[in-house]
Amino acid sequence: MRSPEALAGALPKAELHVHLEGTLEPEMVFFFAKKHGVRMRFPTATALRQAYRFQDLQSFLDLYYEGAGVLRDREDFHQLTLAYVDRVAREGVWHVEPFFDPQTHTARGVHSAGELILGMDENLDDRSDR
Fold this sequence. Notes:
This protein is 52% helix and 11% strand.
């Protein structure tokens, strides 16, 4: 007989209303920060991960927007989307309803929302079988 954890792990899953920017793993935040010369207030990805123990909504939002701030171009959104799709496929997720916050990026001068959407869409057909 399987354990409850093994059974739950084997069941199909769905992720609803997932903000793509919120799927950034600390290591990827630091990758994009280095790529774009963005200085982070945390010295390492490990320190950033430890900060994910939120005390309140504002501390969550501060980290969310700081992470989103390293996403600067179409390629960043492409890489982030592929990393997310690969991760949820490994976790047995069959259906996702991702969102993104275009105003978070266009308000700070990043490409048009259309460019970011194209970055998210590129090559996803290659991942559709996962």
